[in-house]
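TICKET #2291
ISSUE: user wants both folds in one file
ATTACHMENT 1:
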Amino acid sequence: MKKTKEKKLALEIFDSLFIMLLCFATLLSAMLLKNNSGAGLDYTIHVKTLITTFLGLAIYLLYMLNRSDKGLKTMINYIYPTEKFKEEDKK
């Protein structure tokens, strides 16, 4: 049971990071294609912004990983109700 939870968590993290990587690649390619200045791409990284971004990313991932299982279980119970839920609906 523990291994399946760890594997499930790893897959959720991979899915989230993969989507973020695709978003980054899309934005980066748009920036590179739009470069009309002729002076090259001036891309500087500020430490405060980088830390804020990673902190926001960590908070987002923790929130999504915590809520995703609960939301999925609620949706499954709604679509495929068990006998317990069917009895509660009749009341």
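ATTACHMENT 2:
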Amino acid sequence: MSQNGAPGADDAGPTQCPADGPLPPGRSVEDAVECNTARFVDLTRDAGGVAPVYLVVCDADERGTSLTRTEVVALPELQNGLAYLGRETDSVRVRTHPERRVQLEEHVEALSSRDEHDAFEFAGRRFTVDVVRG
């Protein structure tokens, strides 16, 4: 721990991170960095001047709706979010094209409507998923 407000080891800036989640990443990853226990995956470097959209995948403790591999890889943002959701990672924020927002929201809603759980499960990992605008 640093003293007197000086930067310390806990204040590390973003660094490149490995895909150490329960499945491999898709080919669309432009960049992946981590800062402490959060990871940021970029599927598009250019949002065309429009605020980007993010799929946010967060580690969860509660039981969730079980997802199949087909359901996960059907959405590249979810596949890449889980690919970078390593055991020591609390959250992954996947940046994507703004025009993907409606498709992301509809896909997440369809998965969520299958049962009463707020979380999901895949390959032994429990997590929540949310779509947010940048």
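RESOLUTION: both attachments delivered.
EXTRA DETAIL ON ATTACHMENT 2: The chain is about 20% helix and 30% strand.
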